[in-house]
Write a structure and sequence with these properties.
Oligomer: heterotrimer
Order of helices and strands of chain A: HHHHHHHHHHHH
CATH superfamily of chain A: MetI-like
CATH topology of chain A: MetI-like fold
Distance between the termini of chain C: 51 Å
Radius of gyration of chain A: 25 Å
Distance between the termini of chain A: 50 Å
Order of helices and strands of chain C: HEEEEHEHEHEEEHEHEHEEHH
Chains: A mainly alpha (282), B mainly alpha (247), C alpha/beta (252)
Number of strands of chain A: 0
Shape of chain C: globular
Helix content of chain A: over 70%
CATH class of chain A: Mainly Alpha
Number of helices of chain A: 12
Helix content of chain C: 25-40%
Largest sheet of chain C: 5 strands, mixed
Largest sheet of chain A: none
Shape of chain A: flat
Strand order of the largest sheet of chain C: 5-1-6-13-7
Strand content of chain A: under 5%
């Protein structure tokens, strides 16, 4: 990596510093830096899914049909009883098994079933292979479902916070029910929902630290591997336990992401609140 | 019917002892976190700029980073000081014991979240009442005990209840990072172990989820009773409701 | 006749299709020199060299991926990869859930490692903290032998156990001798082996799904070939210099 530097620059840097520069830019470390893509992808797509789930959950919660309201309330309250990590581990496993169970009905032969008796999947042909992309997608959906429940409670509250008079005025102007919902109710809802949704986003960011539990080689897994002591010369630089240093870097990374997110949300809130009569939507 | 429920009951029986570890982690960390959080909230509101910014920084750092990474970092940090500090002091067996270190890190974490809740409540304590107390010639500690504290705890209690429930959920992460000693397995360890034997994800994880659900509801019930007691003199007090606050 | 030709052609296509299928091999990547992640971040080590050679001989297209040790067997059974090469000892307990190929590493004694200068009485060990990697043969042995009067600490990876040993949080670690001897050599005198050798495990083999007899046959043929022509011995000695000069498998 550092071979591209001209000789005079190498001389200027000095051997010690050059060695560490080289060490922290070796393939292992570059892979660590690159693995941040999984964290960011999970956060972004998890948040998008959560937003969709949140809108759906809020629609159910505020529906006029009783059983729908019950489903919405159950969904919103689910996350309060069960830890996110439990669901995060359970959902991909259960979903994989469900897919394999459905596939087994179609593709399994009696011989295949007999060969795998008492094991999972029911037969080899029904197996669904999960690699990093599949796990990442499932992780996003898990995050979306768990934090969608938080988003649903935020959005449902924000829908109720929109002044009735605004909607009644729109109705009086002759807008249809659907038009009132899309053009007035949901559009005004955002300003009330933004502070809560910003909180949900912060929760999702922090939950991305769990990706390594799904065998995704994310920043946490690499920090553990890079920091773990190595005494075997053939496996690279021999060094003692450096893990806490690597974790400190991760801690600072997450705090920085939180800080940046706050700034972005503050700007978005100012933008969304322009022309609105809400002084302090929080 | 029995065929359906027998495996679940069997799982619930197996998971009873592991559940005690999660309960222990929560019980050991909540009182410490509660007391520290009060001081941290007062510190954040302090007029001393140094104290205020230190408390502010602590709260921001712990709320802005994942608990999972805090666990990893504090374990390896505690380990790094073992030979130079804990061993000479003769407390290495205590400091690095997961049953001590786990609650300690949980307490550090919940201190930050609770402090933010208490700070928010502190800011909404009616100014007029505090000024009236001062006019009566009360000292600062008398003001705190008879005016600020009753307001603060009542205002903060609903949000604090949720923090305690989420702290209990966070205990699920402790043994993903700290070494397991002998057979001191918690709910997640045991559910995972059961799953690896027969691949029945739905059964074993549901059983573990039931424990979390039941204990969460129990926490909510007990804290609701306390809230009723705190608001007993207020005729129209709103009952305690589940709300999200862990953010 | 025509249908026969078509059927034969289809069969041939299926057969080549099956041959071109990739064999995914899982390794832990945290057990040098058996398997680790090299400076470029890719799996490397004895088992990666061996796996590539076996696959070349068996005309298989192989890729390596890493998986945490404690879920490495469940994920094999769940079909997330086709084989395990992760220094996994062949045991009767594991044979109940998966199959093993013939061993590619002979039964190897497990050894005790301590900080230099520690003396332990293994006949009457008590009040000590014994570190192991969870779900290993050593974990089961330590629990059965020392569990009653000592504390057994189970870690996710062997490296984590080693970090705790180095920091004085465990008194002794029981692990594969082949893994520990390289560590002692690289620790510049801070760690040393002690106590008796413990003979557990029946050698190391490739872990396979029970139904995968075809793959097992191909790998066994390649392993047998490498044992006979001495190339397996050469590879073992390359990565485990203290096994020199052999012979290990050759000529046996």
């Amino acid at each position: 990596m550092l071979d591209i530097l001209p000789q005079w620059m190498k001389d200027g840097i000095g051997d010690d510093l050059l060695f560490w520069l080289g060490y922290f830019t070796n393939g292992k470390h570059l892979t660590w830096y690159a693995s941040v893509q999984y964290t960011l992808a999970a956060a972004l797509f998890g948040a998008l899914t959560a937003l969709v789930m949140g809108l759906a959950g809020a629609a159910l919660r505020n529906a006029r049909f009783g059983p729908a309201r019950l489903v919405g309330a159950l969904y919103i309250n689910m996350v309060r009883g069960v830890p996110d990590v439990l669901f995060f581990l359970f959902f991909p496993l259960a979903f994989e098994q469900l897919v394999e169970l459905i596939r087994a009905q179609a593709v399994c032969t009696p011989e295949g079933l007999a060969a795998n008796a008492g094991q999972w999947p029911p037969c080899d042909a029904a197996n669904w292979f999960l690699g990093t992309p599949e796990y990442l997608a499932l992780a996003c959906v898990s995050l979306g479902i768990v934090y969608g429940a938080f988003a649903a409670s935020v959005i449902s509250g924000a829908m109720n916070a929109v002044p009735r008079g605004q909607l009644e005025a729109a109705r009086a102007f002759g807008f249809s029910r659907a038009q009132v919902l899309w053009r007035f109710h949901i559009r005004q809802m955002w300003i009330y929902a933004l502070p809560g949704l910003s909180n949900v986003w912060m929760l999702i960011i922090k939950a991305t630290s769990l990706l390594s539990l799904l065998q995704i080689a994310d920043i946490v897994l690499w920090a553990d591997r890079l920091g773990a002591p190595n005494f075997t010369r053939s496996a690279g630089l021999v060094h003692p336990d450096w893990r806490w240093g690597y974790y400190l870097v991760l801690l600072v990374f997450y705090i920085l992401v939180t800080f940046l997110s706050e700034k972005v949300f503050a700007a978005v809130t100012r933008w969304a609140g322009r022309g609105m009569s809400v002084a302090n939507p929080a | 019917m029995t065929d359906l429920f027998a495996p679940l009951l069997n799982d619930l029986a197996i998971l009873a002892r592991p559940a005690l570890f999660n309960i222990y982690f929560a019980f050991a960390s909540i009182p410490i976190g509660f007391v520290l959080a009060i001081f941290m909230a007062l510190g954040k509101a302090s007029r001393n700029a140094l104290v205020s910014s230190l408390c502010r920084g602590y709260i921001y750092a712990f709320r802005g980073s994942p608990f999972f990474i805090q666990l990893f970092m504090f374990y390896s940090l505690a380990l790094a000081f073992n030979l130079s500090l804990w061993k000479p002091l003769g407390i290495d067996g205590i400091v690095l014991n997961p049953l001590v270190l786990g609650p300690a890190i949980l307490a550090l974490n919940t201190t930050a979240y609770s402090a933010e809740i208490f700070y928010g409540a502190l800011m909404t304590v009616p100014r007029g009442e505090v000024e009236a107390a001062r006019a009566f010639g009360m000292t600062r500690s008398q003001q705190f005990r008879s005016v600020v504290w009753p307001h603060l705890i009542r205002l903060a209690w609903p949000a604090y209840t949720n923090e305690v429930v989420f702290l209990f959920h966070a205990t699920a992460l402790v043994y993903f990072t700290l070494p397991v000693i002998d057979d001191q397995k918690d709910l997640m360890n045991m559910a995972g172990e059961l799953f690896e034997k027969d691949y029945n994800a739905v059964l074993h994880f549901s059983a573990a989820a039931l424990y979390f659900l039941a204990i969460s509801l129990a926490i909510f019930l007990v804290f609701g009773l306390v809230y009723r007691h705190l608001t007993r003199h207020m005729p129209g007090a709103v009952p305690l409701r589940f709300r999200m606050n862990r953010s | 006749m025509k249908t026969l030709i078509i059927a034969a052609a289809a069969l041939a296509m299926l057969a080549t299709g099956a041959q071109a299928q990739t064999v995914r091999i899982a390794t832990e990547g945290a057990y040098a020199p058996w398997n680790f992640l090299d400076d470029s971040g890719k799996p490397a080590g004895f088992e990666i060299d061996l796996g590539n050679e076996l696959c070349a001989r068996a005309a298989l297209d192989c890729t390596f991926q890493t998986n945490e040790w404690d879920s490495i067997i469940p994920n094999l059974i769940a079909g997330n990869y086709d084989a395990i090469m992760a220094g996994m000892s062949i045991t009767d307990e594991r044979k109940q859930s998966i199959d093993f190929s013939d061993n590619y590493f002979p039964p190897d004694p497990s050894k005790y490692i301590v900080r230099a200068g520690t003396t332990l009485d293994f006949g009457a060990l008590s009040g000590k903290s014994v570190g192991v990697q969870g779900a290993t043969i050593q974990a089961a042995y330590a629990e059965a032998t020392f569990g009653a009067t000592n504390t057994i600490k189970a870690f996710g990876t062997a490296d984590q156990a080693l970090a705790d040993l180095n920091a004085g949080n465990v008194d002794v670690i029981l692990a594969d001798g082949s893994y520990l001897s390289e560590i002692v050599a690289g620790s510049s005198g801070s760690l040393e082996l002690t106590g008796p050798d413990v003979m557990i495990g029946g050698g190391v083999g490739v872990g396979l799904r029970k139904a995968d007899d075809d793959l097992e046959g191909k790998l066994n043929a390649a392993i047998g070939e490498m044992k006979k022509d001495g190339s397996l011995d050469a590879l073992i000695i390359k990565w485990f210099p203290d096994k020199a000069p052999g012979p290990i498998f050759a000529g046996g």
